[in-house]
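Intended use. Records like the one below are meant for learning the mapping from a protein sequence to its folded structure. Do not use them to infer anything beyond what is encoded.
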Amino acid sequence: MATNNHIPVRSARRCILRSAVAKFLFATAVAIATSSALALSGTLTAGPGIAQATGPKSAQAVSGKGYGYPVKPFDREHLIRANFGDPRMQFHGPPTTNTLMHANGSFSFHQGVDISASGGTAVYPVVDGTVTFVSTEWIRVTSGDRAFEYWHIRPLVRKGEHVTARQTLLGHVTRIENHVHLTEYEGGRVVNPLVPGRLTPYHDSSAPVVRAITFRQTDGGTDVLPIFVRGRVQIVVNAEDAPTAAGFRKWYGPVTPALITWRIRSLRTGRDVVRERIARDVRNGVPQNSSFWQVYARGTYQNQMVWGNHYSYQERGTYLFKLAQQFDTRTLRDGVYDLIVKATDVRGNTGSQTLRFTVHNRPGWA
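Structure written out for the chain above:
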């Protein structure tokens, strides 16, 4: 099974980093090291550049799958500070532009949601079941064809123990993390807990924002001026959403939209010359981690990014998505077009932006 997808850090670094930063890195290390072995269940719903008609603009609701929060009060909404499908990253290099655009590291998709809870908060199962895995900081509870994982806790239960929703104390949130990560499985694959009918109550009233649309010649390359586009280009969008919750004083950065679509409209005819395509869709699952750089574009980094031994505390992330890995502008007539991008969350809130660009593939430049 796929799990929490935090970042592995070599054990040798533990002796070097003894501060709170070290504890943070170590906690994230354990999670991702385990997830690498268990990440078997993500399913790529739609890849970049694949022409598909989009489905409903909000995720399809499920019935009979609802559950409350794993922390008290169970029936009151708690802050979701990280979304399903967010990037989980650690670069093997210093915090520089060169590292950001070219360096190796550990890159994966967040396979659950992070529920804000202070250190020491009691954690309870959201459904009845049997404990099927226990580690030093997370457990799995299985119930028929469903399973739930609870991360960043100090477990108080044993493998094989039967647990009861809202009654059995699973453990307490670790003080360095200040959240409990919840992963949900159905039929052996991860599903999005924020889809209507699952984690309840949950609402989202903030619309995603499409901040910028750009063309590139290569991944990690320089931007191409939209007034003169030719040949094959990569299309990249900067898009994000904001957690919806009131009354929280601590800082939390942006999260990612669940669905991103795009189309191209001819300015000359007013008609679409490229029908709506899906670039990203995590409403019902996440891709395999090996597809990370097919979905995200270079320049992406998460909130409170880890760069080697450096931890960017309370620094917001930037999320760049590939609309098309290699789009051949020669499939279009030379002329002026509008590229229209929409970003949508699981509750149907939508933000959009349009970029006007000129295709010029004929010889010369005049």
